[in-house]
Amino acid sequence: MASHLALVGCCCCFFLVATAIALNINDYGAIPDGITDSTQALQKAWAEACAAESNAAVVVPAGQYVIGPVMFKGPCKSPVAIQLDGTLLAHPDLRLYRPNWIEFQYIDGLVLSGAGKVDGRGSAAWGSNKCRQNHISNCRTFPMNMVFSFVNDATISGISSIDSKYFHVLVFGSQNVTFDSVTVAAPGDSPNTDGIHVAVSQNVAITNSVIGTGDDCISIGDHTVNLTVSGIACGPGHGISVGSLGRNPGEQDVVGLAVRNCTFNGTMNGVRIKTWQNGPKDLAVRDLVFEDLTMNAVENPIVIDQKYCPSGTCPETLKPSRVRISNVTFHNIKGTSETMTAINLVCSQTFPCEAVQLSDIDLKYAGSDANATCINVKATVAGDVNPAAFCR
Ligand SMILES: *[C@@H]1O[C@H](CO)[C@@H](O)[C@H](O)[C@H]1NC(C)=O
Ligand SMILES: *[C@@H]1O[C@H](CO)[C@@H](O)[C@H](O)[C@H]1NC(C)=O
Ligand SMILES: *[C@@H]1O[C@H](CO)[C@@H](O)[C@H](O)[C@H]1NC(C)=O
Ligand SMILES: *[C@@H]1O[C@H](CO)[C@@H](O)[C@H](O)[C@H]1NC(C)=O
Ligand SMILES: *[C@@H]1O[C@H](CO)[C@@H](O)[C@H](O)[C@H]1NC(C)=O
Ligand SMILES: *[C@@H]1O[C@H](CO)[C@@H](O)[C@H](O)[C@H]1NC(C)=O
């Protein structure tokens, strides 16, 4: 199989020649005509790569491949690579999915790279999505483009996720996963198309990427530990959000998040933490840094919302959120807000936010002064913070 390397014509051939057996899916019967279902060929090439004694690479050359649900399942005998140069087109028959499209499970050592695309062809499904935006708990009915669960030591680079029917990417139960130079693209009005959702995972990094979609660019679920986000251009989309948290009894703490050097363009939110009221147990969200961020025409640039109520009809009698938010830094955040309240921090009456630091912030509203809300927050303010935040 190594003889096919000469045909790949990619920038990484030296790497492949040196370390890997290449398994071209066309040799397993895949047909890049944009019509023929090539799922079995891809699945067979994976099975062989995963069983190989030394590093193997599944190669998807340029071309359009129609692919139904695929499970890339480990454990594998050695680390495995997928060189994606072609486009994977989601099979149009929604009944095939159970429930997601491309899943990676129980893999230690994965490199997914190339200039290829994963195209969920979501426009056919979005119209029948009846879930309220952000109200995701009871409506996981549409396939996500890519799910990485129980995957360790993985690098995903170069590829694009296009028009997912639901979240583009989910990372769950995984450690040491890096997304670098990826692109996520879907229309700003596509429902529930979160870019990358990370939960129950540790040491995940998302760097130098462009994410424009219909929901959060990056969303962070419970039990996320040490997530690094940097060099992201977000927009359209709903911004980078922690939560919503504090509703389910099984949730565990979020500890360690750095969001640096990102640009938000025309998004609904910039950076946001949202928690429900009336929670079943105490939970912590701590050690968060948001810095070196540019907001261009962002509706709500800086938000902590501990009275999260997407339905808009929560009774006043709900008990305050039981999520303890502490050690959160907002530093060097500049640009423009589309609403007057550029900084909106509303914390829990029971557990006020602690050790919140605001420094070097300059956010304007329609060329004039914005304002700030800061309730139940123990904050320190340093350097110029505009709008001035009077926290109580
Ligand atoms: C993740 O990386 C850390 C630091 O390199 C290492 O100690 C840990 O064993 C890795 N975890 C897994 C599951 O590979
Ligand atoms: C946090 O994750 C990054 C990789 O994203 C890793 O380099 C770093 O060592 C981790 N930090 C800790 C304290 O584990
Ligand atoms: C900031 O992110 C951009 C990509 O959006 C990258 O090109 C640049 O090198 C990053 N700068 C720093 C200081 O990390
Ligand atoms: C920002 O968004 C606007 C409106 O969608 C678009 O025209 C513009 O090109 C975007 N700018 C950047 C830097 O992405
Ligand atoms: C606050 O968070 C930062 C990083 O997010 C961490 O380095 C620091 O140790 C934390 N401080 C405390 C007092 O826990
Ligand atoms: C900010 O301005 C809006 C619009 O004028 C106003 O409704 C709101 O009360 C102001 N908030 C603060 C904290 O001043």
UniProtKB/TrEMBL annotation:
Pfam family, one: Glyco_hydro_28
Protein name: Exopolygalacturonase
Keywords noted in UniProt: Cell wall, Cell wall biogenesis/degradation, Glycosidase, Hydrolase, Secreted, Signal
SUPFAM superfamilies: Pectin lyase-like
Keyword Signal carried by entry: yes
Family statement drawn from the similarity comment of this UniProt entry: Belongs to the glycosyl hydrolase 28 family.
EC number(s) reported in the record: 3.2.1.67
Signal peptide (UniProt feature, chain positions): 1-22
GO MF annotations, alphabetized: galacturan 1,4-alpha-galacturonidase activity; polygalacturonase activity
Biological-process GO terms, alphabetical: carbohydrate metabolic process; cell wall organization
Superkingdom as given in the UniProt entry: Eukaryota
Top-rank EC class of the record's enzyme: hydrolase
InterPro entries: Glyco_hydro_28 (IPR000743), PbH1 (IPR006626), Pectin_lyas_fold (IPR012334), Pectin_lyase_fold/virulence (IPR011050)
Organism: Apostasia shenzhenica
